[in-house]
Structures are given as C-alpha cells and as structure tokens.
Write a structure and sequence with these properties.
The complex is a heterodimer of chains A (about 290) and B (about 475).
Chain A (H helix, E strand, L loop, with lengths): L10 H10 L6 H13 L3 E4 L6 H12 L2 E6 L6 H4 L1 E3 L1 H11 L13 E3 L1 H7 L4 E6 L6 H13 L1 E4 L3 E4 L5 E6 L7 H5 L2 E4 L5 H11 L5 H15 L9 H13 L7 H11 L3 H21 L1
Parallel strand pairs in A: 1-8, 1-9, 2-5, 5-8
Antiparallel strand pairs in A: 3-4, 6-7
Helix pairs in contact in A: 1-2, 9-10, 9-11, 11-12, 12-13
Chain B lengths: L1 H13 L6 H11 L7 H12 L6 H26 L32 H7 L2 H14 L2 H16 L10 H10 L2 H10 L8 H35 L1 H8 L14 H26 L9 H7 L21 E7 L5 H14 L5 E7 L3 E3 L1 H6 L3 H11 L11 H12 L7 E6 L11 H10 L2 E6 L13 H4 L5 E4 L3 H10 L2
Parallel strand pairs in B: 1-2, 1-4, 4-5, 5-6
Antiparallel strand pairs in B: 2-3
Helix pairs in contact in B: 1-4, 2-3, 4-10, 5-7, 6-7, 7-8, 7-10, 8-10, 9-10, 10-11, 12-14, 12-20, 17-18
The chains are: A alpha/beta (about 290), B alpha/beta (about 475).
Amino acid sequence: MTSAEQRFGSGAEVAAALRTVDYLPDDKVATVTYLAGCLGKPVLVEGPAGTGKTELAKSVAKATGRRLIRLQCYEGLDEAKALYEWDYRKQLLAIQLHGTGAESGIFGEDFLLTRPLLEAIRADDPVVLLVDEVDRLDVEAEALLLEVLSDYQVSVPELGTVTARQVPLVFLTSNASRELSEALKRRCLYLFLGYPGVEREQEIILARVPDITADLAAQVAQVIASLRLLDLKKKPSVSETLDWARTLLLLGTDLVDSELIEATLPVLLKHQADIELAVAKLVTPSRQGTQGK
Amino acid sequence: MINAVAGLVGELRQAGIPVSLADHVDAVAALRFVSLAERAEVKAALGAALVKDAGHEAAYSKIFDLYFGLRAASADEAAGRDGPPGQESPDDGESPSGPGPGPSGNGTGYGFGGAPSMLSRVDDAELQEMLLEGLRENQAKWLRMLAQEVVTRYAGIVPGRAVAGTYYLFRTLRAIKSDSLAVQLVATAPGPPPSGELARLLLKEDYERRVAEFQQEVEAEIRRRMVADRGAADVARTLRTPLPEDAEFLTASAAQIGQLRTIVAPLARKLAAGLAARHRGRREGALDFRRTVRESMSTGGVPMEPVFRPPRPAKPELVILADISGSVSTFAEFTLHLTFALRAEFTRVRSFVFVDVADEVTDILAAAPDITAATGEINARGCGVWLDGHSDYGNAFRTFAEQHVASLRSRTTVVVLGDARANYRASGAAALRAVARRSGHLFWLNPEPSAAWDSGDSVMREYTPYCDAVVECRSVRQLRAFIERLP
C-alpha cells in the first residue's frame, strides 16, 4: 500500500498538474483533490450536469499518469456488475471435465471475473477509480460501495478478503438527484462544483477551444453568465459553453451579436421554454432598439 | 487551531448542519496537510470534511468567515504594513507602492501602503469617485481598502450592541448609493459607447456583478469588525438564520421558497419511490436464468433452487388536494412546487386546489412552461373559489367526493395539504371518509405546528380517523422525515 511517490506536495502542485492537461481547477478543487491523496479518502463531487465532475477524474488520471477505471452507475446495478462475478460457464465446463468431484476447485482466481470495483482494488499499478453518477444507484446498492470506500477492500465469501495493494484515488460524481446516505457521505470528502465565474469560464474556453481569440472568449463568457441569471429549466453547462464557442469559431465570427445568438441558441439551451426566455432577454430588446432608430 | 475548529463545528451544529464525529476528526486531520497561512486552503479543506450538502455551503461560508476571517484579515494588514511595499503579490501587475490603479487618473498618487490613513483624509465626494474608478479597474486589494474606509466612515458601528449588522450594512450601502453604482458605471464607461442593446446589457451585468462583490466585501468588513468587538461566538448567535430546509412554510419569504425548489425535486423522486415500495406486492417476477445457473455452482451444477427477478415496482397514482387559501399562501406556493416536481415521477398525478370548492388544475400545470406561469393561470381563472373565497373544507371535500371518487382506485394515494381550518363551517369529514375508502392511502400534511391543531377553527381531529397518517409539515426537513418513514 504505497502511493507516496504519487502524492502531490500541495494544492498548488495539483492545480499546476491539472493545468497541463487543460483542466483549470479553482483553489477549492485543487485543495480537495490534494487532500484526497493525502488522507486516502474518496471525493464525492456534486453539482449540476456539465460542470466538469467526470472530467475532473479523467484529468487527474491523465495528469498523474494513472489508469482510469470507471464504474457507470444506473438503477439496478448489482454486485455482479460492480464488484465481481463467478464465471459460471467456465465453472460448468470444469465440472463436466472433472466430474462432480471438482466443486471445491471451481472457486479460485481462475474463475473470478473482476468488475470495476474489484479491479481497482487488485490493480498493481496506481489507478483512479471513477464511480460515475452514484445518485442513480438504488439505496440498497449504495451499500456495495461502503466497504470499498472506507477500507479499500472487497470480501469475496469463497476467497476471503481482497485488500488493495495501493490506495486508489476515488472520485464519486452525483447530480444530487437524490439524497445520498449518511454512511456514504461520511466516508468521503465533499466537493461542490458549481458554474464558474466569468473570468474562469473565459480561461476554460481559451484552454479548451484552440484558436479562439481572447476577445471572443470573453464575449462568450459574458453572454453565458447573463443567460445563467435567467430562471431556466436547465442552465447552460460548461460543456455546452464550449460547444457554443466551437460553433461560433466554425462560423468565423469575431463579434457576438443578437442575431447570431438567436440562430445558435439551440446549442446552449435544450428546452423550448428556455429558448423563448433567452430570446426575450437578449434578442428582442436590441431588435426593438434598431426598429426604434 | 484545534480549539478554533471545535468552535466552528459547534456553531455549525447549532445552525442545524449535521457534523459527525468522524467529519470532525477528518477536518483536523486535513489541516495537517494544508498551509495554515492560506485562508482559502483552510476553508476548502475544512469545508470538504465538514459540509456534505450543497445547500449548506452558504451557511458554512458565513460561519467560517466569522471564526477564521478576523485572524486572516489582520494578518493581511500586518503584511501590508511591515513588508517592503514593492514585494508583495508580484502577480498584481501594478506595483502597490506606486499610484493606486484608480486614483492614478486624478494624478494625486495615493500609495497602497499608506492608504488607510490617506483615505481618511479624502472627502466624501472624492471617495465616491475613487470607488467608481476602483470598480471599473476591479482590483481586489484596492477595493478591499475602499470597503474598509466606507465602513469606517458610514456604518457607524456601536461597540457592544448585540445586533446582526444588517442596519450597518444598509447605512453604508445607502451612503455609497450602491443601487445606482452600476448605472453610473455604464454611463461613464470609457471608450466608445457599446453598440446595440446586447452589448449594453452585458456591460451593465458585468458592473452589477462587481458592485455585488463589493457589497459582499463591505458586509464581510462589517462582520469582521463585529467579531473583533464581540467575539465570533456571540456574532454567530445573532447571525443565525435557518437553513433552507428549516425555513417554515407559513412564514418563509419568497426568496426562501425559491431556494426550496432545488431541494424539492429530489424529494419528489423519493416520495415516488417510497410510495412505489408500499405498493410492491409479494408476487415475484420472471425466472432469472443467469442467476439460477450461477447459484447452482455450489450444488455441482444442478439447479436446485430457481431464482426469480424482483417484480417491477408499479408506478403509483397520486391525487393531490391542496388548500390555496390566504392563510396558507406561502405553503400553497410550496405545494404547487412540489406538485410540479411530482408530475415527472408518477404515471398519473391529478392535482386539485381548493379554497371553498375543489377544482382540478392538472391540465394547467401540464400546459404551463414553468411554475410562475402556472400560478398566474390558477389565480387568473380563480380556481378553487366558488362563493366568497373563504376556506370551506366541507364544500371542497363534498364536491371532490361527488365528482371524482369514482376515479379513485386502490393504487391511488391521496395527499391533502392544508391547515384544516374550516372557518367554523361544516368539516365534510364524511366526504373525506368516502375518499379514504376508495383510495389506497390517504395522507394529510399540515403546515401548522401540531400544538395549534384543534385550536380555534382547526378541525384536524375530525379528519384524523380517516387518514393513514397526519403529519406536521412545517419545513422541508419535516417533509423529508415523512417521506423517509414511508416504506
């Protein structure tokens, strides 16, 4: 269980490392990621969709050179898909081959199919474990994670307990669509990822959209900030912002005006009611302004 | 430091944020790894360990600033005074000892180092001018100094008074005319005037953000001084405000009800899951072939015991009967939010509102793009009002039972939201009994404290026998507790 050589020296180092892979963390993200490594605790990342929760885990993996193991959660996920499963086809074959006296031999490593959680525990190389959208799990299935998250071990009844050779960096993401259990929260450090401020969003655009000018990025960030002030069903996320910036770049504009916004709004907003609200705020006043002149 | 953390944890618990012992231990452990001189790092580290709910972050931030803000601020000042002026914050761009970014235009040349004393000599009009310039340049350090100066000058803090400081803030903001700052900034913006409405709008919002940040700076400064005067624990006590989930429906402000919306959506899902679990029968689903074969491994490949899939939970039907009379108006707004959120979770939600007659509003809620439009439509049509617009539970239940009881089934859950204040009219308990008989479950959520039930014109007692449960539901916390008890 050594991960000392992988450990960062400070939050600033984490920030610097993440910046090299074009992920721009704020101080909070950097500090919490750094602490996760120091304390050996998982990080529960919560926030609205598209603010870079999954991207954070991916970027940490990329920046540290660790392998990323991902467990996508969904309703009905059970231990056979999250932890481990016995390869029953192989077991059947073994029984047929050796006759019925072979039962004792069929619960060995050879017949074990590792699923993401067990794989992360058994890995020899340092890994990042990403448990994505943990809020989609059923309440009962959440308990599957507890042993892994607190002690970094998995108990397989037939084999005994498998303990981690090295402590993986664990990120859990959640859209807060339901309250997670206290037991799970207690085992994690908590990190809330909200929408970035104007300046940081501009930086993100500059880092993620090559060839964009600082001026256009600033305009994009300002329009997005203005849209987020509205009472929308779904506010534009960072990933949608980036899509929009790329769209504008493809269209070859260097000035964001109201006609362009109206034409490209569907990239940002996915509800008709939202689009109408946005048009009423950003497009209609200027149209009336020009008619007035 | 450990004592300071303990004080912080104590106050967080007082404010209603659950902090377990394990969280507390983690927080102290985390402090070993961060540099204690960096306030932001300490804040992030303690926050990650102590606060596990996005809705609590604002409260945490406020309390942290009380307990750790003072020390950091005075350290800043000390550094500013002692250190050679040219060496701090090289990333600042402008040399702090040179002319300040704003005043440089005036040619008077205020140095950063001597700013507090220099600023105190400036007259009010000039200070206002410097403030505008400062906001335009948006230099955090300079703005903080200005905030300190305006608080000294205008807040009129009286030492030792046990107040929350809102009046000080009000006085300061009024003196600097903070309402019109953004407009002034737009009017006097340098460079060519913005072309078109869009650019003007964006510019205005940009300045509004800066003004809002400055207001926060002023508020923080006032709190800092109050803490210096009275100590963190005392200020925290006067500042204590309920968390969003503890806000009482009947007395909540519109802003508080607005905050509840984000909390309500997951609750609706949970309520649906809870009710679905109640409806789950004993019947098992189809044979799970894979698991049957897998289980057979321990019996040498002979399938001894078949394994079945769990049955698919039936989506329950929900009927909501909401009192929207004046006495429960804020609660009614909340119930409409809840109803709106519930529509997504249930196969069928039928919503009724009543004051003195029950009217179905399912279609209005379905057609409206958002809750505000729905509320407007309900008010415009005068839904729920039959005669005089005074509560009449008797008539409301009677009309509901007459028209809709036939459509109720054993899979239906009826939820009544109301204070059971029948206005000294007939209670209509018999009609409610008919409803309870036809439906699977009947729950009553009452926004009044249970001590007030059956006092005055409240006739809660008459309805109770027909309800599966009558629950006091004054805040989201209580609603959540009710939902958690469901299965």
